[in-house]
Every structure is written in C-alpha cells, then in structure tokens.
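Exercise 7. Given the encoded structure of a 413-residue chain, write a plausible sequence.
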C-alpha cells in the first residue's frame, strides 16, 4: 500500500512540474509529448490533487482557471479511462447530472448547426429569421444555471469536506465564464438591427466560444469531477445531495425514479431541545417550536456565519430570495460565493472582526425584484466578535406602498 501511495504522490508531483511549463509559455504539444513519456494512467483525483497543490504553492485560482482548458487538453492522452463505475440507479445525483449533460450536448449540437449557417449569409442584410433561429437554439442552454447551482452549492460543499476546495473554485470560475458567454449571446441575439456582417462577428467572438466553453465544462464534469466524487463521497453524502437538489431544480430533463437514498444519520454532539422545553432569554422564553416558527415566518432571510467564517444557521422561510441548502452548514462562507466576489466577502469579514465596521449594505435589481441585503457584525456584551448575520429582503412591494392603510384588510395569499 505504501508503494502505491508513493507512486501516486510521484505522479502528482510530476504532473505539477510538467504542467508548470505550460504556465511558463511552453508549447502545449511539447508538454503533451513530455507527459506521454513520463506519466501514464493519471486519474481524475490526481488531476484535482495537482491543481490543489499548485494553489497551495501560491498560484492563484484565477491563474489555474485561466489555464485549466489547456490542462485538460494536454492531459487527454495520458488520462486513464475512468474505471467503470458501479451501475447507478436512475435518479442518483450523478445519474441526473449525466442525463442533463446528454441533453445539454444535444442542445449544443443543434445550436452549433444554427450558428454554422450564419457563415453563408450576405453581410448587408438584416437576417431576422436566421437570428431568431439561433436565439431559439440558445434559449434551452440557459437552463444550465440549475445544473451549475446544484453542483456549486451541493457537490462542491461535500467536496470541500474531503479537503478538496481548489478544483471547485477553478470549476466555479469556469461556470461563470459560461454564464457570461451565454448572457452576452442572448443579449446580442435579441438586437433586431443586427446585420449579417455583425452576426458573423458575433459568431466568432461570442456564439462559438460560448458553445465551446459549455462543451468543455461537460468534458471536465464527466472525466474529472464525477469520477473523483464517486471515489470520495459516501452514500449518506449522496443522499444529502439528493434530498436538497429539488431546491435548485432540474436542467432540461426531470430525474427518473429508482434511487432510494439511506436515511440521514443523527448528528452527534448536537443539543436536541424537546418541544416542551423553553429557552430563557433576558426578555422572555421561547420553546423550540416557537423559535422555529418565528424564524420561518420572518419576512426576511437570515444566515449566520460564526467567528470561524463557517455557515452555522439559516432560516427556511417559504419565500427565500436566494436558495440555501443544508449542505452549506459548516462550509466556509468564502466557498459559498463565486470566486469573483470572494474579495468582497473577505473585506466585510476583516472589517467586522477588526471593529472598523459593523454594517455593510447592498441593494440590487434582480428578476423584477428590488432586493435589500445587509450584513451585521454580531458581538457579545464585551464587544467580542461572534460572527456575521446576513439579512436579505425583497422590498419590491414595500417600496410601492403609498398613502395610508388604517383599516383591517387582509391581502390575498
């Protein structure tokens, strides 16, 4: 066993050293030949470990992300064929991800054919029919957001428990690139005055790169992410992912039935308050049932991050502004956000911990809603930092109120 571990460690170190030549500007074909000469049968976990080591050595996840497509390309020839996994029951989380990837691949192929037809258009015309055909082909691809969110909030959460956070940051960054490409494609394709010449430029600069980026993400999931997670996650962890997946929805295809997840284990060292017992506060007492009802009926979403920057609690009201899944409990809050916004999270936490600030406030326009987000430093009586409370509220209705309402009047549910 020790020889096997040593061999794996040497392969990972060799991978890292050779891949660094890519980052220094060496031609990919030269790096590929060197890899083929000295490394064989690299598996998904070793590629993830190599990227993790690059970041542990000080390379930013942005640089690793910028090169990860090249990593995947030069490693294709030396990657071992994924071991045939045990047959997954229909409805298992990985089965569903793979089913969605097949549907996405078919939609990508349709979009590629529509995009290719733009090459034969006259430059001077304003081709409404062709533009709308391409737009219609890109619309289904936007459903990938549900796929990405389940992966980022559920799969990545569990992956980080196993000490693997680097690859998830890199892949989240690639997801965001796909999002930006698709958003730019739809925005441009809705422009009614596009000429044939402008559509051809759009084809080369946005449409084809968007489809290529999404294709690349499917490859990385199928050949790196899923084989790695199948070797790491326990059945209980997959059951956890399965239970919380409906919170985010399904991409293009609904799950099949057949998967029967194990029952959740009882959390050790947790205090389970009997319903009849009450918690004594300075201003009164509340039973567990009253506390739960209170949190779940507040007109705001609450999330509490403890002094160690880990998500400790969130309320589960019926109309949450942002999705939350129980998989994030115990997760480093930095890993709950897209890589491009982590620096803002770090700044808020640093200012709260130092005492420089106590409140950070944001508001955004989102899907027709006006969303108000506030962060509060939570301190004990002596001023010691206990954590950060996030309070999110949809203020759309409140901002539209005018005049007075002085008589009892019930609004429709």
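Solution.
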């Amino acid at each position: 066993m020790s020889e096997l571990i040593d061999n794996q460690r040497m392969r990972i170190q060799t991978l890292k050293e050779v891949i660094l030549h890519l980052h220094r500007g060496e031609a990919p074909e030269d790096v590929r030949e060197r890899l083929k000469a000295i490394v064989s049968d690299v598996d998904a976990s070793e590629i993830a470990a190599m990227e993790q080591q690059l970041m542990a050595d000080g390379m930013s996840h942005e640089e690793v992300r910028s090169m990860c497509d090249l990593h995947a390309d030069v490693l294709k020839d030396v990657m071992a064929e994924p071991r045939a996994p045990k047959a997954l029951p229909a409805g298992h989380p990985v089965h569903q991800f793979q089913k969605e990837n097949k549907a996405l691949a078919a939609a990508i192929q349709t979009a590629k054919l529509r995009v290719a037809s733009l090459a034969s258009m006259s430059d001077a015309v304003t081709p409404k029919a062709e533009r709308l055909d391409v737009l219609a082909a890109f619309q289904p691809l936007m459903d990938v957001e549900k796929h990405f969110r389940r992966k980022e909030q559920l799969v990545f959460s569990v992956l980080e428990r196993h000490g693997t956070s680097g690859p998830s940051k890199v892949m989240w960054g690639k997801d965001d690139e796909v999002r930006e490409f698709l958003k730019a494609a739809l925005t441009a394709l809705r422009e009614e005055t596009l000429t044939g010449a402008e559509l051809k430029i759009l084809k080369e600069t946005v449409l084809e790169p968007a489809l290529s980026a999404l294709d690349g993400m499917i490859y990385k999931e199928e050949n790196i992410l899923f084989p790695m997670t199948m070797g790491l996650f326990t059945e209980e962890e997959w059951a956890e992912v399965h239970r919380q997946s409906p919170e985010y929805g399904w991409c293009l295809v609904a799950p099949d039935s057949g998967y029967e997840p194990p029952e959740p284990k009882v959390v050790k060292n947790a205090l389970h308050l009997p319903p009849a017992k009450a918690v004594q506060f300075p201003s009164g007492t509340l039973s567990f049932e009253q506390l739960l009802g209170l949190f779940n009926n507040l007109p705001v979403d609450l999330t509490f991050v403890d002094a160690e920057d880990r998500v400790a609690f969130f309320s589960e009201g019926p109309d949450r502004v942002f999705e939350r899944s129980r998989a994030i409990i115990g997760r480093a809050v930095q890993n709950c956000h897209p890589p491009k916004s982590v620096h803002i999270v770090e700044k808020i936490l640093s200012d709260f911990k130092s005492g420089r600030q106590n409140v950070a406030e944001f508001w955004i326009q989102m899907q027709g809603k006006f969303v108000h987000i506030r962060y509060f430093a939570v301190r004990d009586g002596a001023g010691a930092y206990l954590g950060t409370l996030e309070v999110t509220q949809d203020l759309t209705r409140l901002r539209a109120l005018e005049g007075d309402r002085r008589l009892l009047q019930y609004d429709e549910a």
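Remark. The first strand starts at residue 278 and ends at 281. Students should compare their own answers with the one above.
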